[in-house]
Amino acid sequence: MPLLEVSNLIVRYGAIEALHGVSLSVEQGQIATLIGCNGAGKSTTLRAVSGLLKPAKGSIRFDGKEITGVAPHEIVRLGVAHSPEGRGVFPQMTVDENLDLGAFARPRSEKDQIRKDREKSLDLFPRLRERLKQLAGTLSGGEQQMLAMARALLARPRLLLLDEPSLGLAPQVVQTIFQIIRDINAAGTTILLVEQNAHMALKVAHHGYVLETGRIAMSDSARVLEASDEVRKAYLGIG
Amino acid sequence: MNGRAWKNMASSDANLLSLITASRPGAAPTLLRSALPVVVIVALAVMAQVVLKGLLGGYYADLAITIGVNIVLAVSLTIVNGFTGQFSMGHAGFLAVGGYVSGAVTYYFSLTQWGSAAAAGGRLSGMPLSTEGLAWLGAGDVLFPVALLIGGLVSALLGLAVGLPSLRLRGDYLAIVTLGFGEIIRVVIQQSGPALKTPEAAEQAGVLGMATGLGGALGFGGLPKYTSLFWVVLFAGLTMLVAYRIKTSTSGRAMLSVREDEIAAEAMGVNTTRTKVWAFVIAAFFAGIAGGLYAHKLGVALGPVDAGFQRSFDIIIMVVLGGLGSISGAALAAVVVTMLPEYLRAVADYRMIIFALALILMMILRPKGLLGVREVWDADLWRGLFRRGKSAKGGGK
């Protein structure tokens, strides 16, 4: 059974239908990626999964449990963490305080475990450790992305939703971020990755979905997609 | 082990240490630590009444009481407008509710039980210190805080009733709803019947008659005058203490996160609606207390105007001026905003113009208010002040 199973998801913004029946699934322990152009509905799909948007129709099942229409703060407690697009760090708070909020949904009894997870997160992002007392708004774009990911990890998610982690970052930093995504996955966290950088995304992912104007246009293993002519032409700028 | 790894370890140890010392169990020290500020506040309140009042003299002591009431109002609104970033424009509505409810309790209780609505307080509630044989606290000094508490609770309940439906609204819409709430309170008070003057009339009218006999448009006169420097310092101190405890707690962190980025806050697992409603209820409670203090202050005739938007704006000015989210900033601004018009009396008719200009100038020079989110005792605030040019650029928005 896949960890996440989305079927026939329809999401509307007012009268405009953004997703016309999206179906996808993410296997336990894998990285799945959702690639596509601007406005294809990638972020919308993630937001529906984490409960930030209420779908008009369709079903979302996490670990076999129906979570369609469940409030976002409940979904976090079930084990889905969302690192939102544009990073969504709290700019007027320190790095330290941002990280604390990452563990907000966890009970106080896990205090010791949270402290350990915090250290693990900081080991993954040593840059953040140097800047614990700095306001998050004054970090560079790459550091903010690292903070958003470290913070999401502190929720101890079973499924991590990453929305465009490479957005607006220097190529070198993008490499680092994707390496860390691999590391997080290797440590056992299942990841659903939304990316415009199809090249990088398909390199780290096991499975890929191509989203085109609210519909899944292609679905295959990341290797196959990377090699397919259509994807190479439309998203990788090759051929 | 290389140098950097060692440094990392050292800093993580320091982190660990601070976590341990901050959360070390052991009931006695914890209890002591949490009771200590309260003891200090009570001591300060007694000193304010016994020592400070004499030093200040009548006029300034009176001004200090007004300042204290305004501190309670500004700090309580800081919890909503500052911490959670919701723009509430009806805070005076809660002030009026607290004032009228606690006023009705003290007035009609005194009238029916003691035969007169005059204050029956002791030396701490403003009776002259020289009074022969008068106790520090009288029977009225039990009635008064109980009445304040009832006023606060009714106000908080109303906060819940208003907050539940309206805090799903954002920005301008919430502002309009809260503004409307204040106006509704004002109109309802205006429609109340005349206050009952004698014990017999009150007995005859019954509880319902008393509850609706609030003086109408003329105002609720004749309330017993209990509010003294003691009570004001006590409640201003407690309000600031509670606000500070909230700000530094996990739920306070949740409130601030709602202000910073509501969607990210939800993604962190913060129940944003509940957080906002809680902030609203707590703020309404303390505004109700402030209303009670105001209603029982010498020289005040509580009237429907006190629920009006002019009053709400005055409180908002204090919060914005102090820096959205700063408790000490709001308190400081309450002092400035209360005193400035008094000192500008010399220029008579022009004083409100000068006052307005001072506010505009202030917002140009320090757009984040006096202190921003920081508190007076935060070290980085002072560092920031000394490197203003740099921090102003780094501030972003």
Structural class of chain B: mainly alpha
* CATH fold naming of chain A: Rossmann fold
Portion of residues in beta strands of chain A equals 25-35%
Q: Going by CATH, what is the homologous superfamily of chain A?
A: P-loop containing nucleotide triphosphate hydrolases
**H/E order of the elements of chain A?**
EEEHEEHEHHHHEHEHEEHH
Radius of gyration of chain A: 17 Å
Beta strands of chain B, count: 0
Share in β-strands of chain B: under 5%
Q: What's the mean pLDDT score of chain A?
A: 90
Please provide the count of β strands of chain A.
Answer: 10
Mean pLDDT of chain B: 80
Low-confidence segments of chain B, given as residue ranges, are 1-27, 389-397
Strand order of the largest sheet of chain A: 6-7-8-3-9-10
**Order of helix and strand elements from N to C terminus of chain B:** HHHHHHHHHHHHHHH
The biggest sheet of chain A, with number of strands, parallel, antiparallel or mixed sense and barrel status, is: 6 strands, mixed
3D structure, described in words:
The complex is a heterodimer of chains A (239) and B (397). Chain A has helices at residues 42-49, 72-78, 95-102, 111-124, 126-130, 141-153, 171-186, 198-204, 222-227, 229-234; strands at 4-13, 16-26, 31-36, 57-62, 65-66, 80-83, 159-163, 190-195, 207-212, 215-221. In chain A, strand 9 and strand 10 form a beta hairpin. Chain A is an alpha/beta fold and 239 residues long. In chain A, the strands form two sheets. Chain A has a six-stranded mixed beta sheet, sandwiched between helices. In chain A, strands 2-1-4-5 form a four-stranded antiparallel beta sheet, with helices on one face. Chain A is globular, with a radius of gyration of 17 Å. Chain A starts with a strand and ends in a 5-residue tail after the last helix. Chain B is mainly alpha-helical and 397 residues long. Chain B has a domain at 36-308. Chain B contains 15 helices and no strands. The radius of gyration of chain B is 23 Å and the shape is globular. The A-B interface holds A 50-52, 71-73, 76-77, 81-84, 88-93, 97, 100-102, 104-105, 111, 115, 119, 122, 126, 129, 132, 137-138, 151-152, 155 and B 8, 11-12, 16, 19, 23, 250, 253-254, 256-257, 260-261, 263-272, 373, 394, 396.
